[in-house]
């Protein structure tokens, strides 16, 4: 069996080598072949049985028309807007993505951005209400962390709200309208890219919605670049509007509207989901899905491969407050590192190279926090830091 995988998929060799050797017919050589996602061609994947991609590879007829043996496509990502799902269905090719794989990573990116901006502008985080657009995996993980910190939030998700109204869900959350969420102190976008239909997200934040925003608000986008009209945002900022902007995703990636960068508080190269755990969970989920397709019991799990964090343990001996939160969050992930790399290197290395060479970043769970007698609250554990195992 020939398995082709994106070179930017951690632990792919560890997870998939055995599968491609075990599942090769007599005479056929099992092979695991890495490719560069942006430049993959139809000729390269003409003999693939399995294709494992990331979001930068468009999987469609153009890519697959020379291939007659493909049976499985996996994307180690949450978003699936790069996949022609109808085409795969017509071809009877099984497709799996990795829902939720990097949702914690995105939530920790947003939290790091909030902590950095709170310090920069002397904001008391407890005074904020965060408006979350999209209450799926990433929006929910974010809301859990905000709840741990007693920060108010509102969620807008007309699709989940509709399901709730129809009674076919156990979800008991209260949903808000887009207008309500756009009035919050912070607006954080967590929707897929959807063009057309009843609830399109393509340029959801357009000139009309941007005109509703106040100078004191923070707008964060770590979902898809097309959800914000980048030219309208640039025009707003050029007019002197005070909106604070955090952008991880950009219209037209890997090209970026360069003029917008100086108007952002934090700018990064679509890496919100790039914790080691987040990316590796994507590989693990595809491994499990392929095992299922091949009717093989999975042997490996992520915990077999994840290294220890460089600071694996911390003891806290003081009451939890914003200063402590600041120290703790930035110890694990300080988004200013990625912002600095982006500003200095984007036009030297290029967008894709910044992503490919992303430095290792861990999730809060990689650090064990021990609460000593003067630490009265377990907020760190509720935020996702690990407890000492007995
Ligand atoms: N920057 C990154 O690194 C990164 C990482 C992970 C995911 N993403 C992007 O974020 C998106 C969301 O991720 P997720 O895991 O939360 O996906 P998800 O599918 O779990 O949740 C998306 C939610 O958005 C809701 N939604 C759809 N249209 C909406 C609309 N018009 N208004 C409000 N809500 C709407 C859906 O009902 C759903 O609940 C992904 O599709 C992906 O494109 C980016
Ligand atoms: O959709 C996702 O899961 C994220 O946007 C993910 O981080 C994309 O990363 P990529 O596949 O482009 O490496």
UniProtKB/TrEMBL annotation:
Reactions catalysed: 4-phospho-D-erythronate + NAD(+) = (R)-3-hydroxy-2-oxo-4-phosphooxybutanoate + NADH + H(+)
Subcellular location(s) of the protein: Cytoplasm
Domain D-isomer specific 2-hydroxyacid dehydrogenase NAD-binding, first and last residues per copy: 123-262
EC number: 1.1.1.290
CDD domains for the chain: ErythrP_dh
Pathway(s) it belongs to: Cofactor biosynthesis; pyridoxine 5'-phosphate biosynthesis; pyridoxine 5'-phosphate from D-erythrose 4-phosphate: step 2/5
Residue ranges occupied by any D-isomer specific 2-hydroxyacid dehydrogenase catalytic domain in the UniProt entry: 35-294
Gene3D superfamilies the UniProt entry points to: 3.30.1370.170, NAD(P)-binding Rossmann-like Domain
Keyword annotations from UniProtKB, A to Z: Cytoplasm, NAD, Oxidoreductase, Pyridoxine biosynthesis
Record domain Erythronate-4-phosphate dehydrogenase dimerisation: where: 305-379
This protein's name: Erythronate-4-phosphate dehydrogenase
Organism: Colwellia echini
Lineage: Bacteria, Pseudomonadati, Pseudomonadota, Gammaproteobacteria, Alteromonadales
């Amino acid at each position: 069996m020939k398995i082709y995988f994106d070179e930017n998929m951690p632990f792919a060799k560890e997870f998939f080598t055995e599968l491609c050797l075990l599942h090769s017919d007599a005479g056929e050589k099992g092979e695991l072949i890495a490719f560069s996602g942006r430049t993959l061609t139809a000729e390269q994947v003409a003999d693939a049985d399995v294709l494992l991609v990331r979001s930068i590879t468009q999987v469609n007829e153009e890519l697959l028309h020379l291939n007659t043996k493909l049976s499985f496509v996996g994307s180690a990502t949450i978003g699936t807007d790069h996949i022609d799902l109808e085409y795969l269905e017509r071809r009877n090719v099984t497709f799996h993505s990795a829902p939720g794989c990097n949702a914690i990573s995105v939530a920790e990116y947003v939290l790091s951005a909030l902590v950095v901006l709170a310090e920069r502008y002397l904001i008391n985080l407890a005074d904020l209400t965060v408006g979350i657009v999209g209450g799926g995996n990433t929006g929910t993980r974010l809301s859990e962390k905000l709840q741990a910190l007693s920060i108010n939030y509102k969620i807008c998700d007309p699709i989940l709200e509709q399901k709730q109204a129809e009674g076919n869900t156990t979800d008991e959350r209260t949903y808000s309208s887009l207008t309500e969420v756009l009035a919050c102190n912070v607006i954080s976008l967590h929707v897929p890219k959807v063009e057309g239909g009843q609830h399109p997200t393509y340029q959801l934040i357009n000139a009309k919605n941007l005109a509703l925003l106040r100078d004191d608000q923070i707008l964060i986008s770590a979902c898809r670049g097309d959800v914000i009209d980048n030219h309208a945002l640039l025009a707003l900022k050029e007019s002197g509007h005070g909106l604070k902007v955090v952008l991880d995703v950009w219209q037209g990636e890997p090209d970026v509207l360069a003029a917008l960068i100086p108007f952002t508080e934090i700018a990064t190269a679509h890496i919100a989901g790039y914790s080691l755990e987040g990316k590796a969970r994507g590989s693990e989920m595809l491994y499990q899905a392929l095992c299922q397709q091949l009717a093989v019991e999975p042997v490996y799990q992520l915990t077999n491969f994840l290294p220890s964090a460089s600071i694996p343990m911390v003891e806290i001996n003081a009451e939890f407050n914003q200063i402590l939160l600041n120290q703790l969050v930035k110890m694990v992930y300080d988004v200013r590192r990625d912002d600095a790399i982006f500003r200095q290197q984007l036009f030297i290395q290029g967008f894709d190279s910044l992503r490919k060479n992303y430095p290792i970043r861990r999730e809060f769970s990689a650090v064990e926090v021990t609460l000593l007698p003067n630490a009265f609250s377990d907020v760190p554990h509720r935020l996702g830091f690990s407890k000492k195992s007995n």
